[in-house]
């Protein structure tokens, strides 16, 4: 089977899979994308096909995650939290379907603007790649402090950089003694599923369980479905007004350069900047939503492409989270040999475009035509416990593949510590990933390890 055909097939798989996952409220991007991307890599998919799969996953997940957010008022994932106030406003006005259409149309525009802009900018930054590679350890250490400060925990996150680095290297030494090789995937998975796994631990704790127990089922009021276009594939440019198209395009263009900043932070910032310039409750909310969802796409795409194409090392919150397997997935990829080294600029352009186009063709009309029916089906018949169980099973298989029982123990040890640090103290997953990458250099400087 040709590489092109494999890439198209995996893009279809990624588009379908993450279109469905996006409809599940609260489905964290890192916890869902990392295991499936690792699975594709470890199954032996060509590097270009892995990239197509991932790009299709990004665009489809960030289109369908708008459905539960707009229709039910519950965030599809963490990126949707800044949009909740505006979706609530439009639900009170009785037009949640308008909110949904504006959001996903803005997402399409943001994705297809960010992709070429990020590629061009990455080519420019690639001229400085030797400098970044020569000082990788220092860069990771400094970046871990910066990202820790901008996480929810701020000062406590900074205070825990060295202890968490010691924890990582301690586990690494123990696993090396047992397996005579260093683990990597098991650590990635542990940090990725940490927040989700911490919820399970809290639910099992007799002292902490009271904080999550509910006396009655939660009720959601779902708006009726109203279709105002003919055919199956509506034109996103006709959904948005002229000013909304300009604001969304401009915001996507600007955020295609800000690859070192938090995607959630940039989403909130650009939404507030645009919203402050618009009068009228309805117009302000619809415009802000189209801009913010466009930025969720542009930041995720740019923060994947720029460090991957320019440096080959994870220097963005996205690269340290959902996109981490593209940089390091032993024994297939490592920081010294990953997609950056195995793909040309034309490969990134062609196979990235394949992933984006296939994902958009699958997710966009699906959300526009069937989002309400799909959301009702998932809420009624698919429990979140079943979804969590599926992810835990996939994580166990991948961790066992790398390190047998030791790999599984490392994964869930990291998930327990990292997850509780995230949930209770606000030490975000991005900060934990960056500390992981810099832990060897940090410990060598602190205690000579």
UniProtKB/TrEMBL annotation:
* Pfam families in the cross-refs: TctA
Q: Which UniProt keywords apply?
A: Membrane, Transmembrane, Transmembrane helix
Transmembrane stretches, by residue range? 36-59, 103-125, 131-150, 157-176, 182-204, 305-328, 348-370, 382-401, 407-425
Superkingdom classification of source:
Bacteria
Q: Give a yes or no for keyword Transmembrane in this entry.
A: yes
In what residue span(s) does the DUF112 domain sit? Answer: 8-423
Concerning InterPro entries, the annotation shows: DUF112_TM
Write the protein's name. Answer: Tripartite tricarboxylate transporter TctA family protein
Q: What taxonomic lineage is listed for the species of origin?
A: Bacteria, Bacillati, Bacillota, Bacilli, Bacillales
């Amino acid at each position: 089977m040709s590489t092109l055909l494999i890439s198209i097939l995996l893009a279809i798989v990624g588009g379908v899979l993450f279109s469905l996952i996006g409809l599940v409220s609260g489905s964290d991007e890192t916890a869902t994308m990392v295991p499936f991307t690792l699975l594709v890599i470890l199954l032996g998919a060509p590097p270009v096909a892995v990239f197509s799969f991932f790009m299709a996953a990004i665009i489809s997940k960030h289109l369908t995650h708008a459905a539960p957010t707009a229709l039910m008022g519950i965030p599809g994932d963490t990126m949707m939290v800044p949009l909740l106030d505006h979706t609530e406003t439009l639900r009170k006005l009785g037009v949640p379907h308008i909110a949904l259409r504006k959001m996903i149309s803005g997402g399409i525009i943001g994705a297809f603007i960010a992709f070429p802009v990020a590629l061009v900018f990455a080519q420019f930054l690639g001229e400085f790649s030797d400098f970044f590679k020569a000082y990788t350890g220092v860069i990771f250490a400094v970046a871990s402090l910066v990202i820790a400060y901008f996480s929810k925990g701020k000062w406590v996150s900074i205070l825990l950089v060295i202890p968490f680095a010691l924890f990582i290297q301690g586990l690494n030494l123990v696993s090396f003694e047992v397996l005579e090789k260093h683990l990597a995937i098991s650590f990635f998975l542990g940090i990725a599923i940490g927040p989700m796994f911490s919820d399970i631990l809290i639910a099992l704790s007799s002292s902490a369980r009271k904080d999550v127990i509910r006396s009655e089922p939660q009720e959601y009021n779902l708006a009726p479905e109203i279709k105002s276009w003919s055919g199956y594939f509506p034109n996103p440019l006709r959904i948005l007004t002229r000013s909304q198209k300009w604001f969304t395009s401009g915001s996507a263009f600007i955020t295609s350069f800000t690859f070192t900043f938090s995607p959630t932070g940039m989403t909130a910032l650009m939404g507030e900047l645009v919203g402050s310039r618009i009068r009228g409750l309805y117009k302000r909310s619809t415009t802000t939503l189209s801009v913010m969802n466009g930025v969720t796409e542009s930041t995720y795409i740019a923060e994947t492409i720029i460090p991957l194409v320019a440096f080959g090392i994870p220097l963005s919150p996205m690269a340290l989270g959902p996109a981490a397997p593209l940089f390091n997935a032993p024994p297939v990829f490592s920081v010294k040999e990953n997609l950056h080294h195995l793909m040309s600029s034309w490969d990134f352009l062609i196979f990235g475009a394949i992933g984006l186009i296939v994902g958009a063709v699958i997710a966009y009309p699906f959300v526009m035509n069937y989002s309400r029916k799909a959301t009702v089906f998932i809420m009624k018949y698919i429990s979140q416990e079943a979804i969590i169980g599926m992810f835990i099973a996939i994580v166990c298989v991948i961790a066992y593949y790398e390190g047998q029982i030791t790999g599984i123990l490392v994964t869930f040890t990291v998930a327990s510590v990292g997850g509780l640090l995230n949930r209770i103290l606000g030490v975000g997953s991005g900060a934990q990933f960056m500390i992981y990458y810099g832990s060897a250099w940090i410990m060598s400087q602190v205690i000579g390890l």
